[in-house]
């Protein structure tokens, strides 16, 4: 009977050891999962913040583009309203067709 008792004790010790290892492994895995979950949440928060910053920057750039486009259109209208004069061969100032080609070399 001593062999049977020794076997049972050995089995119980082995079972206890395996249970302890299983609990340690489970605890370690839970800690890893919690750490990874925390890192993922931090990364999601960072990405959300960056998305908001980029959206604000795009909105600012679109606003600036619209302002510059409006200014360019206003300046083009001003240019279109000017009367163009040039000197003719006799030295007289005459109105020039604004759509005529200008000789910039002379």
Description of the structure:
This protein has a two-stranded antiparallel ribbon. By secondary structure, it is mostly helical. The protein has one domain (2-83). Strand 1 and strand 2 form a beta hairpin. It is built from 1 helix and 2 strands; from the N terminus they run H-E-E. The model has no long low-confidence stretch (mean pLDDT 87). The chain is rod-shaped and about 135 Å long. Helix content is 75%, strand content 8%.
Any idea what the radius of gyration is? Answer: 42 Å
Determine the mean pLDDT: 87
Low-confidence runs of at least 5 consecutive residues: none
Distance between the termini: 124 Å
Structural class: mainly alpha
Tally of strands: 2
Instruction: Please give the count of helices.
Output: 1
Percentage of residues in DSSP E strands: 5-15%
- Helical content class: over 70%
Topology:
Blueprint lengths: L1 H80 L2 E4 L5 E4 L10
Antiparallel strand pairs: 1-2
């Amino acid at each position: 009977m001593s062999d049977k008792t020794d076997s049972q004790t050995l089995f119980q010790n082995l079972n206890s050891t395996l249970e302890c290892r299983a609990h340690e492994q489970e605890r370690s895995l839970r800690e890893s999962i919690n750490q990874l979950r925390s890192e993922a949440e931090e990364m999601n928060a960072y990405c959300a913040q960056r998305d908001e910053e980029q959206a604000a920057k795009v909105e600012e750039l679109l606003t600036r583009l619209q302002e510059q486009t409006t200014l360019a259109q206003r300046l083009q209208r001003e240019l279109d309203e000017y009367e163009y004069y040039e000197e003719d061969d006799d030295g007289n100032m005459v109105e020039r067709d604004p759509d005529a080609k200008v000789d910039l070399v002379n």
